[in-house]
Write a structure and sequence with these properties.
Number of strands: 13
Low-confidence stretches: 153-157
Largest sheet: 9 strands, parallel
Organism: Discina gigas
Shape: globular
Number of helices: 18
Structural class: alpha/beta
Protein name: F-box domain-containing protein
Strand order of the largest sheet: 1-2-3-4-5-6-7-9-11
Distance between the termini: 70 Å
Mean pLDDT: 85
Helix content: 40-55%
Radius of gyration: 24 Å
Length: 402
């Protein structure tokens, strides 16, 4: 090993698919330990618990480790999964086990206490201040990723097989009525505020692996200061992926007062933009101009993903026209046109864009008479893709252009 150059060792480390393997590799030789730090601490897992955030803070206080941190993966799950590691640790300290029926009552008490502690921490100022202090110690932090569940390496030593012994029911008032949207809101707010206070220069902020229930609660649009801080945090981002909830006319009105455009517009270097609005957006209100504006151009934008977005044909075509020089990849899922037809949009794409990738799923358009909507089947969606990208000559015929 001593004869291998640092470059070759780094190449070896690139092929490790587990931080556990990298950690074991560090034990082989002292010189390898230093090189392995770069890979072991490049991306740090985090979850919204005091124990996890305290670990992050401890890393930030070690300059030899903190200088390697470039990314944070923030995983959110239901509270009983979040506190499982801490709960098991306390059981061991008291000499208890899941299988000891005689001591089951005490285990239940510890579990309830751990859950209550998690609730209290979620609503305490420490939630943000601890993360902010940690971010301030990472001079090279550039990416934040929010995920559902998340890669929590420390918990691989624990089994969730016994978790059903400890009943837990999430409360809508605290977690949200659709899923965990209020947990995502608290996490989103903590990360944005922490990055803002720490002065982090992010190039990427992503919410990945989300589905229609894993969204930031709609009350985010009531928090003007948070949205203003998000605009500052996102200013240098090249990649943005955000999933937000909108499910009432009252929130639509707040959305128009605090338009998402104000948050996105400062990101002049934006290359990839993914926006999703769950499955809760009310039909009727037209929000597209309040998201993308009518004249705004991101000159480097090459990838666009829209999930559950309502619009008019002319609005989307105008946006594509403004970005036809840069756009190379488009995904639209669960998109609704209030006026116009998807066929016309596909024709525009074929004639004006040089796309390398196009995906369309679950497209809808509104009939002119009443509240009747028609949707395109999977085969019709693929016909559109073939038409735009692969020389196809036909588009679905049963949807009349309007």
């Amino acid at each position: 090993m001593e004869k291998l150059s640092p470059e070759i060792i780094r190449e070896i480390l690139y092929h490790f698919d587990s931080k556990v393997h990298i950690a074991n590799f560090r034990l082989v030789q002292r010189s390898l330990a230093e090189l392995a730090k770069e890979f072991l601490f490049r991306t740090v897992p985090l979850k919204p618990t005091k124990l996890s955030i305290s670990r992050l803070l401890a890393i930030s206080q070690r300059p030899d480790l903190a200088r390697h941190v470039k990314g944070v993966i923030f995983g959110i799950d239901e509270p009983h999964y979040m506190i499982w590691e801490q709960f098991n640790e306390q059981l061991r300290m008291e000499g208890l086990s899941h299988d000891d029926e005689m001591q089951g009552t005490r285990a239940q008490e510890i579990f309830k206490s751990s859950i209550q502690g998690w609730y209290e921490f979620q609503t305490s100022p420490e939630y943000t201040t601890f993360i902010s202090a940690a971010f301030a110690g990472f001079p090279r932090l550039e990416t934040i990723q929010m995920v559902h569940g998340g890669p929590m390496a420390m918990e691989r030593q624990y089994t969730y097989q016994k978790i059903d012994l400890y009943p837990f029911e999430p409360t809508p008032d605290f977690h949200g009525g659709y899923g965990s949207e209020k947990d995502y809101l608290r996490g989103f707010a903590a990360l944005i505020n922490a990055a803002y206070l720490a002065g982090s220069k992010l190039t990427s902020f992503r919410m990945t692996g989300m589905n229609t229930e894993e969204i930031v609660d709609q009350s985010v649009f009531e928090n003007t200061e948070l949205l203003q801080r998000a605009a500052v945090v996102f200013r240098n981002c090249r990649v943005l992926e955000i999933h937000l909830g909108i499910d009432s006319s009252e929130v639509v009105d707040k959305f128009k007062v605090n338009p998402l455009l104000n948050v996105l517009a400062p990101a002049e270097h934006l290359e990839e933009l993914c926006l999703g609005f769950g499955n809760t957006a009310p039909s009727g209100p037209h929000l597209f101009p309040h998201i993308f504006g009518e004249e705004k151009v991101w000159p480097r934008l090459r990838k666009l993903e829209l999930w559950t977005t309502d619009m008019h044909e002319n609005e989307l075509i105008a946006f594509l026209e403004r970005h036809k020089a840069s756009l190379k990849s488009i995904l639209i899922s669960n998109g609704l046109l209030f006026t116009g037809c998807w066929n016309n949009i596909m024709r525009f794409m074929k004639e004006n864009l040089q796309l390398e990738s196009l995906e369309v799923w679950d497209l809808f358009c509104k009939h002119s008479d009443g509240e009747i909507y028609c949707n395109y089947s999977h085969s019709e969606s693929q016909m559109m893709v073939q038409y735009v990208q692969n020389g196809g000559e036909t588009l679905p015929e049963r949807h009349v252009d309007v």
